[in-house]
Amino acid sequence: MLRVVIAEDDFRVAQVHEKFLAKIEQVELAAKAKDCAETLAAVKQEQPDLVLLDNYMPDGLGIELIDELRKESPETDIILVSAANEREYIETALRKGVKGIILKPAELGQFTATIEKYRKDREKLSSQETIDQEYLDELFGVKAIKKEAPAVKGIDPLTMQKVQKLLAQYEDGVTAEKMGEEMGASRTTARRYLEYLVSTDDCYAELGYGIVGRPERKYFVK
């Protein structure tokens, strides 16, 4: 169960965020605080997993409270929920290691998605004994660049691009014979390109039956 402290000086906003939290599975409210002093005390007492931290508090700035919160509870993470959207503020927040930033007024969808992502990332990380690059790329939102495929005998790159564009137009799949007609080549040539795309996992093939009941292989873009 993910235990959360809401640090928000506006009680109406705090109530809205509390209702949002109640809609998320495996999350519970540990405490609410309306200023920096109460937030610090709540974190010290509750040792929560997460603090939803406003920036503009009656007795100070939430961004300046982060270091003190970490001293009281090193394992507590922070997601900022604030109207502050200045570049300097965002840069400072990222340098301080916040796990997310939700700009006010918070919408249910964005609020839920941010908390859910944090919860899932936390659970997945705690279940790993060792970490590989694929997991780190997923955690930090990095999309690995595919290595350029080596040249293959009988496969012309320009023709391949044409085949891929044509294939994308056939949502219901296309046969090698039909592809050959479209690209102005023989069925054998079209099949060679289509089968190459199957081998690179860029399309897949299914066996069906033509008008006269003859088995035919249809290719579908992924």
From TrEMBL:
Q: Which GO terms describe its molecular function?
A: DNA binding; DNA-binding transcription factor activity; phosphorelay response regulator activity
Q: Name one GO cellular component term.
A: cytoplasm
What keywords is this UniProt entry annotated with?
Activator, Cytoplasm, DNA-binding, Phosphoprotein, Transcription, Transcription regulation, Two-component regulatory system
Q: Which domain of life is it from?
A: Bacteria
Q: Which SMART domains match?
A: REC (SM00448)
User: Gene3D superfamilies of this UniProt entry?
Assistant: 3.40.50.2300
4-aspartylphosphate is found on D54
* UniProt xrefs under Pfam families: HTH_64, Response_reg
The record places domain Response regulatory at 3-119
> Where in or outside the cell?
Cytoplasm
Protein name per UniProt: Transcriptional regulatory protein
